[in-house]
Design goal:
four-stranded antiparallel β-sheet, single chain, two-stranded parallel sheet, about 10% strand, alpha+beta
């Protein structure tokens, strides 16, 4: 009797293993069919250090004004708090590598630099649609529950991707892949299915600190630590209101995000350019002129950036960024447009126009402009006038 029970248990175990193997193979095939470059699997308990690292980041205030990170702390730190039934987490990677070094535009002060990831369609839409296709087919095949996430949910994709073996979190805190460098979009599928787990990736940064040294604003207090409050990507995308004066000259012509730490990574020599057309840069977003971008009112902004992630920050915050680039350009030919924007309905635009004009106009000319200014009742704009020396 004992032998028969043991044999029955063995057969059940073998049956369960075959099911896991088949489901794992199925989801990998689906990932390839949907155009993903990488697909690997980990478990919900695979990031035990993440909660403490997140706690330190938040307690130090390095998340800036991104209050949603603190509000979702518990769910973000532990996948089982987000969904108690999850047994397997599938991580997907989609290459968005640029065709050339994106830092080239930084040497062209009349042009604006937009982060590589935002030069075409919003990757959230591209990836989520594909993940939903995979989830539908997988749920039907497995008879299990699934949930898909792309960046906007409280999921720590980068630590999970490292645990699944897609890459490792480099000293700039972003994922680095041996095959795709720093240029990978991530998505995840949570499921109640029991799948075969992959091995985690080890850190291959060694003594290299290229990404840390490349940061214009010294946003890395230590390797593997990011202070978002100093990061140009945070300042130009997440931060509302005026940007601190100390950072404005350092921003240069970066008007939406910053790729410096990513582009500096030596592992990018193994990366290929994106094959997905929706992720290849639009020609008009590779090096748009600052003069043109200063002309955008709200309808024109929405039209020009239709389908782009840039649209989510809104016209006023965007023009704030472009005015910083204008002030850093040294191009006096932009003065007229900046004067127009100094009368803009948006206080954040008016304030940054003052800063730009102070840098573009001769002192005597700026003084006359200040004398002729109309009354200003917005406290932040008043502060800009004080900082300009006009009082």
């Amino acid at each position: 009797m004992r032998t028969s029970i043991s044999d029955a248990e063995t057969r059940e175990e073998e049956k369960a293993l075959r099911r896991r193997q088949k489901l794992t193979a199925f989801i990998r095939e689906e990932a390839e069919a949907q155009g993903f470059d990488l697909c690997r699997i980990t478990g919900p308990d695979s990031i035990p250090k993440a909660p403490e690292r997140l706690r330190i980041f938040l307690d130090d205030g390095q998340h800036g004004t991104m209050d949603w990170m603190a509000e979702t702390r518990e769910r973000r730190a532990d996948p089982k708090v987000l969904w108690s039934q999850v047994r397997s987490i599938v991580l997907f990677g989609l290459n968005y590598g640029p065709e050339e070094d994106p830092r080239g535009v930084l040497e062209k002060p009349d042009k604006a630099a937009i982060s590589v990831y935002a030069r075409n369609r919003d990757y959230h839409d591209v990836i989520k649609g594909r993940l939903k296709e995979i989830a539908t087919r997988f749920a039907a095949r497995a008879g299990e529950d699934v949930k898909v996430f792309v960046d906007t949910a409280p999921v720590m994709e980068k630590p999970l991707a490292e645990a699944a073996g897609l890459g490792w979190q480099g000293k700039h805190t972003n994922l680095v892949s041996r095959t795709h460098g720093s240029w990978l979009f991530l998505g995840s599928l949570f499921t109640t299915a029991d799948l075969i787990m992959d091995d985690h990736e080890t850190d291959h940064c060694g003594s290299c600190r290229a990404c840390l040294d490349a940061c214009p604003t010294a946003a890395f207090p230590a390797p593997y630590r990011l202070d978002a409050r100093r990061c140009i990507s945070y300042l130009t995308i997440e931060h509302k209101g005026p940007i601190e004066p100390e950072f404005r000259p350092l921003i240069g012509n970066r008007i939406y995000g910053c790729d410096d730490c990513l582009a500096a990574c030596p592992w990018n020599k193994f990366a290929a350019s994106a094959s997905e057309m929706k992720l290849r840069a639009r020609e008009d977003l590779k090096e748009p002129s600052i003069a043109f971008l200063l002309t955008l009112d709200d309808p024109a902004f929405r039209t020009f950036f239709s389908g782009s992630p840039v649209k989510r920050i809104g016209r006023d915050r965007f023009v704030r960024n472009v005015l910083i680039a204008a002030g850093n350009s040294g191009d006096a030919g932009l003065t007229g447009q900046c004067l127009e924007l100094a009368r803009d309905p948006s206080p954040v635009v008016r304030g940054m126009a003052i800063w730009a004009l102070k840098r573009l106009m001769p002192d005597a000319e700026f003084a006359r402009f200040a004398e002729m200014r109309s009354n200003e009742d917005d406290p932040e704009v008043q502060e800009e006038w004080k900082l300009s020396g006009a009082g």
